[in-house]
């Protein structure tokens, strides 16, 4: 089940306007280039920002996401016909033999259920050709990034085409071991409606992620720093032998 921020049509339409300047994707584009990837699986593709960047470079892309509303946004974008969009997740994909599989942003952490996480790693491996790579990021739990998730530090007012003025903020709800739950709020000036979306992320330690990858037959090639957020993210590069 996708969170409301992705599954609700009115909220999915806001995503790009509220998350502009996706400099985090530059490193993933670089990885696609350095590996010579010609076929990429974008797991949790959302509104298709990364998938469309790849497709614009002539790369064959499959974007998969459980939120139909986000896929509707992605399909409607210029170039949307270049990408194969799949409504679902990585656990039931058709044969792909991808050179590269990615989970950008919070995708890996949003798969909070342990069984779903294991099945995602399995599904991604099956979708890769031998020698293909899985690349994803997760926040370093040692940085306790959730302490910054407050209304005061996140409050934003944005003019969104087609929606008008929208106020947005984030508030921490609960920290329960590795699980962190927070609420995103959206206030629409046009009609006064306020919508909220609760999400839970799992903060995994580096050793835990490496064990999971090895258990599913990956070779962990490297754990990088995210160049746009130094010291805050762990970027895993794993290869299917």
UniProtKB/TrEMBL annotation:
Transmembrane segments: none annotated. InterPro entries: Methyltransf_25, SAM-dependent_MTases_sf. Residues 40-132 form the Methyltransferase domain. Keywords: Methyltransferase, S-adenosyl-L-methionine, Transferase. The keyword Transferase applies. Pfam families: Methyltransf_25. GO terms for biological process: methylation. GO terms for molecular function: methyltransferase activity. It comes from the Bacteria. Coiled coil: none annotated. This is Class I SAM-dependent methyltransferase.
